[in-house]
């Protein structure tokens, strides 16, 4: 038995299969515990939706270069919390005033709640994320160039 | 806020660094792991990789295996990146941040192995890479469930209240298993016979430290 | 009575089980790689169930990590299988490919710069892919690589400005926005050139 098991484990072509089985077992067990998983309503960065606002899903109020209310984990660590959220580039401001729906693209411009979280309060996440991209890209380009020269 | 240092495993709190919502902390436990990670990163940075000898069977001739300088540079770069990721993973005070660092360790481990030119080793790297990729599901999933059921990701706030669901903890552990599985299968890949010993060491050290850290997180939250 | 979150979890778990069963049954290496992409979406599903602004901000790193790993693994697969790019066989060799690129690519890059941020980078990257597919990309590769390195540094700099000089938040946001533009653009265009188009 143990020999059979170790034989399966030693074959790394089966590695992802073994892992898949493990995950499936845990998830099936997890389905049974779902009733005990309560959604915690009192949370950070709550999402509010005002369908009538031209900046709809990302409208958090505030005027550029002023503060708006943001519910961060440790507000005392980010003294200028809320400024980025309130900021709109002139271009996105123009879009928001001229049309009703195009303004939602503000998420693509600097400023707004997502940038506040990504760069300011959870900046370290973004640093790690770009580093991962950097390393993964380094691996890929190294292999690519080496394949090229051969 | 200081509750985290009351947990048995942590030991006394030394200091913390405030990066907005993410507050890495140094307790006796994490500081020890951090020191280990620093030592091995420095080793990988400054050591000269060993050159291996192939002995020709039946005679007394031997030749040294050649290591291409660009392979060497690349392995060193990835090993340092791996060390940096380990440094971050062992001290970070935020669960999602931890999972990101774990994913970074996974990809750098693949990178270290992938610089080999042997088909056998590359195949092992590929199979391990698949696991490291699908391990993102339990890893991020576990962190997401902790956030949804407790409303926070900060280990500081979660410490000691036992609010994190057991399923999320198991998923986290499973995810780290996937990212840190490399050592077992790298031995299998006979990469120990390939060049670049100090860099291969980084794979083992990072997975070990990652495991120790996830055990601490699971016990604390 | 189950809440919306719980019903969402049930759905997500069922999807995860299906995805991993398929991964279990697949033995071909290339198909496995494609299936990992499917499973990764399940992670995004679980994050999306949080349904706050934070969830949206967590999806972005999650997505990027997965794309990055996929890129590295795909390249390992090519090396492992010893797949070489085909020499001198152009897939698309029609006249419009010679004249249109500068104009179209220019428009896409300009629009991307106006959009800026992540999606802007994607649009601008698309423009560069288009250009390199049509025109070939000998020296482009090294330049893009350098540019993305600088973008990375700029991003780290923006992070430290937020940290040490929070008063300069505007400056930092602009640096970060510009850096992500360059970075995503570089990544996208590299994926395009690395696809191994014969023009290289």
- Strand fraction of chain A: under 5%
- Computed structural class of chain C: mainly alpha
User: What is the count of structural domains of chain C?
Assistant: 2
Instruction: Tell me the series of helices and strands of chain C, N- to C-terminal.
Output: HHHHHHH
| Distance linking N and C termini of chain C | 61 Å
Tell me the fraction of residues in β-strands of chain C, as a range: under 5%
- Protein structure class of chain A: mainly alpha
The greatest inter-chain interface is formed by: A-C, 66 and 69 residues
Order of helices and strands of chain A: HHHHHH
Which spans of chain C of ≥5 residues are poorly predicted at pLDDT below 50? 196-200
Mean pLDDT of chain C: 77
Mean pLDDT level of chain A: 80
Q: Tell me about the biggest sheet of chain C? A: none
Number of domains of chain A: 2
Give a concise summary.
The complex is a heterotrimer of chains A (150), B (221) and C (200). Chain A has 150 residues and is an all-alpha fold.
């Amino acid at each position: 038995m143990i020999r059979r098991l170790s034989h399966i484990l030693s074959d790394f072509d089966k590695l992802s299969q073994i892992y898949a089985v493990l995950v499936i077992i845990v998830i099936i067990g997890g389905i049974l515990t779902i009733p005990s998983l309560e959604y915690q309503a009192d949370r950070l960065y709550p999402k509010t939706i005002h369908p009538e606002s031209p900046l709809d899903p990302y409208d958090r109020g505030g005027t550029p270069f002023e503060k708006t209310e943001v519910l961060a984990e440790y507000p005392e660590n980010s003294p200028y919390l809320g400024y980025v959220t309130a900021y709109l580039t002139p271009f996105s401001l123009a879009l928001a005033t001229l049309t009703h729906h195009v303004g939602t693209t503000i998420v693509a411009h600097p400023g707004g709640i997502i940038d506040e979280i990504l760069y300011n309060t959870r900046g370290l996440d973004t640093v790690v994320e770009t580093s991962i991209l950097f390393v993964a890209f380094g691996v890929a380009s190294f292999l690519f160039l080496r394949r090229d020269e051969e | 806020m200081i509750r985290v240092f009351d947990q048995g495993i942590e030991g006394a709190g030394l200091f913390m660094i405030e990066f907005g919502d993410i507050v890495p902390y140094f307790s006796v436990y994490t500081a020890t792991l951090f020191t280990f990670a620093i030592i091995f990163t420095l080793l990988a940075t400054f050591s000269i990789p060993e050159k291996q000898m192939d002995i020709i069977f039946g005679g007394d001739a031997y030749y040294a295996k050649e290591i291409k300088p660009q392979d060497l540079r690349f392995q060193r770069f990835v090993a340092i990146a791996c060390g940096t990721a380990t440094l971050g993973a062992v001290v970070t005070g935020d669960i999602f941040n931890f999972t990101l660092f774990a994913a970074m360790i996974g990809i750098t481990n693949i990178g270290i192995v992938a610089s080999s030119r042997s088909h056998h080793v590359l195949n092992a790297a590929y199979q391990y890479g698949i696991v490291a990729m699908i391990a993102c599901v339990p890893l991020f999933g576990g962190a997401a469930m902790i956030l949804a059921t407790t409303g926070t990701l900060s280990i500081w706030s979660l410490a000691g209240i036992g609010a994190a669901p057991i399923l999320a903890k198991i998923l986290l552990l499973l995810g780290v298993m996937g990212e840190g599985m490399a050592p077992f299968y790298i031995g299998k890949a006979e990469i120990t016979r390939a060049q670049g010993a100090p860099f291969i060491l980084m794979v083992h050290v990072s997975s070990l430290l990652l495991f120790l850290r996830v055990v601490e997180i699971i016990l604390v939250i | 009575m189950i809440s919306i979150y719980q019903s969402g979890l049930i759905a997500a778990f069922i999807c995860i089980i299906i995805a991993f069963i398929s991964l279990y049954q697949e033995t071909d290496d290339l198909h496995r790689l494609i299936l990992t992409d499917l499973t990764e979406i399940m992670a995004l599903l679980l994050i999306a169930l949080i349904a706050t602004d934070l969830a949206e901000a967590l999806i972005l790193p999650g997505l990027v990590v997965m794309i990055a790993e996929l890129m590295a693994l795909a390249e390992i697969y090519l090396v492992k299988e010893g797949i070489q790019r085909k020499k001198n066989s152009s897939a698309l060799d029609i006249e419009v490919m010679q004249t249109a690129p500068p104009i179209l690519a220019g428009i896409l890059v300009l629009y991307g710069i106006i959009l800026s941020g992540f999606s802007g980078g994607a649009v601008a990257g698309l423009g560069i892919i288009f250009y390199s597919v049509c025109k070939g990309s000998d020296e482009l590769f090294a330049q893009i690589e350098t540019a993305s390195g600088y973008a990375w540094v700029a991003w780290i700099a923006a992070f430290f400005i937020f940290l040490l000089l929070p008063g300069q938040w505007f400056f930092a946001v602009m640096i970060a926005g510009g850096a992500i533009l360059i970075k995503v653009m570089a990544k996208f265009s590299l994926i395009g050139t690395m696809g191994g188009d014969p023009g290289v």
